[in-house]
Amino acid sequence: MRWLSLVLALLGITVIWTAVLPRLESHPVVRSRIDHLERHRINPAALFYTDLEPMSAWEADVAAARARAPDAFWSVKRPSGRDFDAGRVSLDEDVDAGNQEQR
What range defines the domain where residue 100 resides? Predict the structure, then answer.
């Protein structure tokens, strides 16, 4: 009985994967969403927004805005006393600085 359940489950997954999903892709609503993602070069499988190609332009815009008005954005103070900028400095420096201060 357990084998039958396993075989039916695998058969159901196979039917969905090979028959239902390809047909769903051609549905107008789904097709328009896929076209939108492709047009904007958005990878829906990206784990983080920074993994997307268009984010590099946005990051450059933010860096330019920070350069024009550095006090407009909040920053995190690190144990070393310097501001933390995730794009430029490794956290390892703070760990090393914190370890040295405790000695």
Answer: 74-103
Alpha-carbon gap, residue 65 to 72, rounded angstroms: 9
Task: Give tens-digit pLDDT for 57-80.
Answer: 888 888 888 888 877 766 655 555
- 84 DSSP assignment: E
| DSSP structure class, residue 69 | -
Note whether 27 and 4 are same-domain residues.
Answer: yes
What are the residues facing 84 on neighbouring strands?
76
**pLDDT category of residue 36 using cuts at 50, 70 and 90:** very high
**pTM exceeds 0.90, yes or no:** no
* CA distances to 49, 63, 65, 74, 103 from 77, in Å: 24, 18, 20, 10, 21
